[in-house]
């Protein structure tokens, strides 16, 4: 922890338990947890080591740099890099034994050149665009791309994958359309003799609502951390949130009625009030948009945020909390008492963003249940 006492507590036991729940949901498909973006703000190195101990067969990251950091920390689990190949990183990724995403002729040439220079084969997962319209080879061009790959023996196609745009929608029609397009692309590759070890398209929402999408591998992200894949979707039984963001009261001041609080004078006391100062602000990932809207927990009771959230500090009203004083711990969000969904709901966003917003200057403290005696 830093001297401010603002800390993100990460329960690795919850993450490991969530992973085991995901394995059950996957029904025999390999589970590839997504730990990109520093494990959605939870700390990728600690999370990866916990998952490796659980026997995860694969892990997914966004960048080759993220894969390098995992390897340097001792992670041996196979890694899939979602980001496209780059000349400066592809050789490193191949040496690290990572699978790289490819979906253009340029990607193929980069991988083949790097593999040839190393005297190795490059593992590739071909990404198919089935309706996300972000990245990937159009499903209509699968046959031609399969023909191109036949000219590059340096590339081993280990996987073919796509990504759902709308799997959390109660109307399953677009998800079914995407799955149908993906199956068409897979059939075209199979006709060209390319049958990968891993066909994968299911994210967290698809894993929950579309069991037909599980295929050979699934790629859950947000559920691993015990958070919801979309607003209004309750966590299934057995999943638990892993992150709790806490801080502490550093100062309490008595403020007369009619006095304003913080920048812009957006809040004024209506009575004599006890105002607590918290050492957390928007530079820590507690957004200014929560000013005068959010609450925190002090001694198990709700304390409203008053005035504008500052860069490094936030003020709360302690008037209704008897005995609250400097040094008291404050739950900012997380756990079951003040779920991340309450914050994401106030912000009009998703749980993913709230977890990822917690800045690097907030220490992550990872803890785990003690090992059981054998």
Major sheet characteristics: 9 strands, parallel
Q: Which class of secondary structure composition applies to the elements?
A: alpha/beta
Helix content, binned percent: 25-40%
CATH structural architecture of the largest domain? Alpha-Beta Barrel
Active site: 36 (proton acceptor), 263 (proton acceptor)
GO molecular function, one term: alanine racemase activity
Cofactor: pyridoxal 5'-phosphate
Catalytic activity: L-alanine = D-alanine
Structural write-up:
Helices cover 30% and strands 22% of the residues. The strands form four sheets. Strands 2, 3, 4, 5, 6, 7, 8, 9 and 10 form a nine-stranded parallel sheet that branches. The chain is elongated and about 80 Å long. It has helices at residues 12-26, 36-41, 44-54, 64-72, 87-95, 105-118, 142-149, 173-191, 204-209, 340-347, 351-357; strands at residues 7-11, 30-31, 59-61, 79-81, 99-102, 122-129, 137-138, 155-161, 198-202, 217-218, 243-248, 251-255, 260-261, 267-268, 273-278, 295-298, 301-304, 314-317, 329-334, 364-367. The model has no long low-confidence stretch (mean pLDDT 95). Strand 16 and strand 17 (301-304) form a beta hairpin. It is an alpha/beta fold and 374 residues long. The chain has two domains: 32-224, Alpha-Beta Barrel (TIM Barrel), CATH 3.20.20.10; 243-367, Beta Barrel (Lyase, Ornithine Decarboxylase, Chain A, domain 1).
